[in-house]
Write a structure and sequence with these properties.
- The chain has 113 residues and is α+β, with helices and mostly antiparallel strands.
- The chain has one domain.
- It has 3 helices and 5 strands; from the N terminus they run αββαβββα.
- It has helices at 10-18, 41-50, 96-103, and strands at residues 27-30, 34-38, 56-60, 63-73, 76-85.
- It has a 5-stranded mixed sheet, with helices on one face.
- Strand 3 (56-60) and strand 4 form a beta hairpin.
- It starts with 9 loop residues before the first helix and ends in a 10-residue tail after the last helix.
Length: 113
């Protein structure tokens, strides 16, 4: 049995993503992989670095691209990617009320005071 055979529950993963302290994805999807799409290249870099990885970076047709593939997390293989216009940057943040509600879903995480 490999780690991918024992995947964490989808609800737990959404809470883990939201409470990670990292930029929030624009889109989350679960299928054969956990896919996180971001609207900023810096967000992919932050997530990849958390897992000891360096993202693939490129600039093409006036856009910046970043991706990182097959990062193992709680039994899921996670893929990260983003594109942004060459002139934009900046992270997304999770609203405080959402953080409080999601904290209740993960027993080992205390809600922020």
């Amino acid at each position: 049995m490999t780690a991918v055979d024992v995947r964490a529950d989808v609800r737990l993963m959404v809470a883990e993503i939201a409470l990670s302290g990292l930029p929030m994805p624009k889109e989350i999807s679960f299928s054969d992989h956990l896919r996180l799409r971001f609207d900023r290249v810096a967000a992919v870099s932050a997530w990849a670095q958390r897992f000891g990885r360096s993202p693939n970076l490129d600039v093409h047709s006036g856009k910046r691209w970043a991706d990182a593939y097959d990062i193992e997390w709680h039994g899921w293989l996670m893929n990260l990617w983003a594109t942004e216009p060459e002139s934009e940057s900046g992270p997304s943040e999770l609203p405080e009320d959402v953080t409080q509600r999601l904290s209740a879903l993960i027993p080992h995480v205390k809600a922020p005071a």
